Amino acid sequence: AKVLLHETDDAFSIITIFEKQPSLGGVWSRERIYPGLASNSPALTYEIPGFQYPDDVRKVGAHVEAEDINAYLCAFAETHGLKSHVKFNSEVQDVSWHAETRRWLIRGRDNSGDFQSYFKFLVVCNGLYHEKNIPGLPRQGPPKTWPRIFHSADVGDPDVRHALSNSVHTLIVGAGKSAIDLATLIATGAWSDDRRSPKVSLLYKRPHWLSPRSILGGMIYFERLLFSRFLNAWLPFAVHPDSFHRWIAETAIGKWLTNTIFRCVEADFKVSLGQLDLHETVPSHPLREALSGALHVAPKGYLDLVREKKIGIIEGSIESISDRGVNVRTNQGSATMIDVDNVLWATGYKIAFPFFTVDTLQRLGIMPDNLDSDPTDLPFLKLHRLLVPPATVHPKMGSAPSRNIAFSGFAYSLLNPTVSFVSAHWIAEYFLGKLDLPKAQKIKEGKIVELRGSCLLRCGFSYLKFSRTMTSILADLMHRCRALLSVAVANVCRTWREGDTYRVPCDALHRSAVKRYEAYDWAP
């Protein structure tokens, strides 16, 4: 909204934002955050280019508290005059293309009742965190005797936190950042008035890699390594951008060096975190696979709680729920009944567009015509550049929507605000017809090409494949698409030469990103 309003020479002077919640922030809104929640990304990588956090938040090695993120987003909206464009408590229930007026028809409901509006352009921003992923399981016995079921998205509700704080035994399902954070908070009695510590069990199929805040005996903040050109050079590319990357990926020596570097980092992780005696918390898959999503900063005290058995680890999955608790099948094949009074699903979200019909999704080219899927539980999503429906780039019929719909928030990165910034500029240029786009056949094929004179890549379109765990979705995104994310990587990775004065200057990042963006050869 900020880019369309202020950076397009008034080409989009009328902007309307429909927000289902009563306040700003999305996953960081007042209704969804809770005490103890913080970003998984370092503070200096979690800023919108050109708009800095307060100085006391912008610290190397620091992660931003949820309350600070909420205040930051509200300040951004206030600074750029966006709040007057937001219609709060407005749930969009149906989005359809009106061929006669060549407009998007939006129907929904707010505090005043039903509403409908027509718009020339549409940007869908419900993102990857819209529909809770709670698996359907067989249940036995009277419902009143079942354990209470919650999702991690519910923890913003004080009543849910009270129930979890006063439980006898809570089972948390998941291995991601939310799961281990919530396990730590509940086990330490963080939300309990008397600091009561309930019993907590953590159930997952396999552990994720945990990141220390600093490595090499505390000498280097890990973010300095993660966002460096050095580490990025050893990650896989869909197309080798130069001879060096080709040598790394295809020669025996290059592969050996890559594996050696990551094995050294893995070994240091386990030593820095003190995991050597906690085998149940150490993954068997290589760290290199985790850098695209399944890598989480270890919460303070989490591993000590596991060591003290205040957090129990179970590797397996739930088979059923009954009045006696939950029936768990371990990875070794044995079945066990666990007596719990709460089950907290920290299993991520599903790709969902409850306001689109299957027919609309198919017309947009997001879903194949021969696949009948539930719009609230899609198996995958197909978008050109992870931004626009392929069928609308070169529509076959004159009455069909043409370059007037985009999806923002599906190009995941560890640098989400910067990616959103670049995506917003791309969408604005796309709507204004200022981009040279590939031909329809190339978009259909999802052709990947190199950018001239650069180690950056762009991607035709990517499939956002469905997985029952959010981290797998994010890993697939990062592995398949390095499109607009590359601007962020190129500017943030100045770590080693800046030493102790390491900073991410957002104003410089903004100027450099725009310069690089405008210099790109987007022609097919």
From TrEMBL:
<protein>
    <submittedName>
        <fullName>FAD/NAD(P)-binding domain-containing protein</fullName>
    </submittedName>
</protein>
<dbReference type="InterPro" id="IPR050346">
    <property type="entry name" value="FMO-like"/>
</dbReference>
<keyword id="KW-0285">Flavoprotein</keyword>
<dbReference type="InterPro" id="IPR020946">
    <property type="entry name" value="Flavin_mOase-like"/>
</dbReference>
<dbReference type="GO" id="GO:0050661">
    <property type="term" value="F:NADP binding"/>
</dbReference>
<dbReference type="InterPro" id="IPR036188">
    <property type="entry name" value="FAD/NAD-bd_sf"/>
</dbReference>
<dbReference type="GO" id="GO:0050660">
    <property type="term" value="F:flavin adenine dinucleotide binding"/>
</dbReference>
<dbReference type="GO" id="GO:0004499">
    <property type="term" value="F:N,N-dimethylaniline monooxygenase activity"/>
</dbReference>
<comment type="similarity">
    <text>Belongs to the FMO family.</text>
</comment>
<keyword id="KW-0560">Oxidoreductase</keyword>
<dbReference type="Pfam" id="PF00743">
    <property type="entry name" value="FMO-like"/>
</dbReference>
<keyword id="KW-0274">FAD</keyword>
